[in-house]
């Protein structure tokens, strides 16, 4: 009887809307294109997760259902525990509950695979115990994956802090990467965040396969090198299946947000969209410089403003900013800013319907924190970027986008780590009106087409996912 059931996949996302959204999209593709059914099993720390729940509730439970594991307890963690350590620990501390859930699924469905995200490698053992193949959905790009796969070797061969390495590192197929642009948590090698990251990277090799949210034409050399490394380094097979992104509204009543009406009234390609993902925040000083820069540029802008945070660049990560729990962010803008810029700018507190904004014809550029979902959303719409990385793997993304793919202009910081207003004005003007923007835009347009082809019938990403599906169904 079991054989007649559709093949079933368990997907385990770690905390963060940026992890969940592409996994939901992946699940939809598995259902629609390959007749799978899916269960999301969700480890969590007891945060309210309102936006996450909304995303999951919008799915048809016949094909994609979800279950929340009992919340883990973080009472013993130090206040300043790094976010990566918290995310990884959410998984580690949920393993026994995950094992129970997976066993029930294995008995009641034709369970063929467990898919985890970047932070989920701890669940491989549980998958193996339940006799299902552990797969990773790598929600960022092939360059960041190369970094992850080669980090254990770098750890063995480097004794200094990575940011003090005299030369940049060149992973196979990648452009050079300076130590200062490595992942956030690896900078302090004595920190728990580094140990967790290294541990995860070591385990990556043990996955049965890694799906990457990128496509062959975006990173051709890197994918080629990763394929070669399968034989030479014993890395797992890598499947470029992206862009896997949400095409409709991300959240709330996105479709009728006031900023879309405002965009309708602006000239084609004239507006710079300024947003830093679901978690990005700045210090008050930086926020003021950004305001000064936008005003000075004279360009039209749509800016998603968050309340400043002096200590963290990911101030709203666990809560997600859409829940509007913050103090009124507009109160932190320079005096008279809103009045002076009202003809050219619109400021939106905390959250904007980004997918709609990027696909709007008035949007001509995107000043972004280089979160990978934001990047892909910009690529599929052909919108060129100003790269302002903040945390996590965003610096690697910025290097890839600016130095390799050449679709972004990367911001520079002064000695105090501040991007100055006059520079912001220069980037904004250059991107929307200048020669810099023209070059980046034309490359972006090529990639927009390439992404479309990759996802079409017979396209590289469609075929790659079909290969994974065949393996899971046992037909390879
Ligand atoms: N997002 C949005 N409105 C906002 C900020 C973010 O809709 O004001 C969405 C965005 O479209 C993307 C996701 O939230 O799908 C952010 O993911 P990304 O990987 O770019 O960054 P992260 O939030 O993980 O840092």
UniProtKB/TrEMBL annotation:
It is an enzyme of class 2 (transferase). InterPro entries: UDP_glucos_trans, UDP_glycos_trans_CS. Its EC number is 2.4.1.-. One of its GO terms (molecular function) is UDP-glycosyltransferase activity. Keywords: Glycosyltransferase, Transferase. Belongs to the UDP-glycosyltransferase family. PANTHER family: GLYCOSYLTRANSFERASE, UDP-GLYCOSYLTRANSFERASE 72E1. This is Glycosyltransferase.
């Amino acid at each position: 009887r079991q054989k007649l059931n559709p093949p079933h996949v368990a997907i385990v996302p770690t905390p963060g809307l940026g992890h969940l959204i592409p996994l939901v999209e992946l699940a939809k593709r598995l259902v629609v294109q390959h007749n799978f059914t899916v269960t999301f099993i969700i480890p969590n720390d007891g945060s309210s997760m309102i936006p996450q729940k909304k995303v999951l509730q919008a799915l048809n439970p016949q094909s994609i259902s979800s279950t929340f594991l009992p919340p883990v307890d973080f009472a013993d963690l130090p206040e300043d525990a790094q976010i990566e350590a918290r995310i990884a620990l959410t998984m580690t501390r949920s393993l026994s509950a995950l094992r129970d859930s997976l066993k029930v699924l294995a008995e009641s469905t034709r369970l063929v695979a467990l898919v985890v995200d970047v932070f989920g490698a701890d669940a491989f053992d549980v998958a193996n115990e339940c006799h299902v193949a552990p797969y990773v959905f790598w929600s960022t790009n092939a360059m960041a994956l190369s970094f992850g796969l080669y980090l254990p070797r770098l750890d063995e061969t480097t004794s200094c802090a990575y940011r003090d390495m005299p030369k940049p590192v060149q992973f196979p197929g990648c452009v050079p990467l300076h130590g200062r642009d490595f992942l956030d948590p690896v900078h302090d090698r004595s920190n728990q965040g580094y140990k967790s990251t290294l541990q995860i990277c070591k385990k990556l090799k043990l996955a049965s396969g890694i799906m990457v949210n990128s496509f062959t034409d975006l990173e051709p050399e890197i994918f080629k090198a990763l394929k070669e490394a399968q034989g030479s380094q014993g890395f797992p097979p890598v499947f470029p299946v992206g862009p896997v992104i949400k095409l409709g509204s991300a959240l709330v009543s996105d479709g009728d947000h006031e900023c879309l009406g405002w965009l309708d009234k602006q000239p084609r390609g004239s507006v710079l969209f300024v947003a830093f993902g679901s978690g990005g925040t700045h210090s008050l000083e930086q926020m003021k410089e950004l305001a000064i820069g936008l005003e000075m540029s004279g360009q039209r802008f749509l800016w998603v403003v968050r309340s400043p945070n002096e200590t963290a660049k990911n101030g709203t990560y666990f809560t997600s900013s859409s829940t509007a729990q913050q103090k009124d962010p507009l109160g932190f803008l320079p005096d008279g800013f809103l009045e002076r810029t009202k003809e050219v700018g619109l400021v939106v507190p905390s959250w904007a319907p980004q997918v709609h904004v990027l696909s709007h014809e008035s949007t001509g550029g995107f000043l972004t924190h280089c979160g990978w979902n934001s990047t892909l959303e910009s690529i599929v719409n052909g919108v060129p970027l100003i790269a302002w990385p903040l945390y996590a793997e965003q610096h690697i993304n910025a290097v890839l986008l600016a130095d390799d793919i050449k679709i972004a202009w990367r911001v520079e910081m002064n000695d105090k780590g501040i991007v100055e207003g006059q520079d912001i004005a220069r980037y904004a003007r250059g991107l929307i009106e200048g020669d810099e923007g023209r070059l980046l835009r034309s490359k972006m347009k090529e990639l927009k087409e390439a992404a479309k082809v990759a996802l079409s019938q017979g396209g590289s990403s469609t075929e790659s996912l079909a290969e994974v599906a065949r393996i899971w169904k046992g037909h390879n």
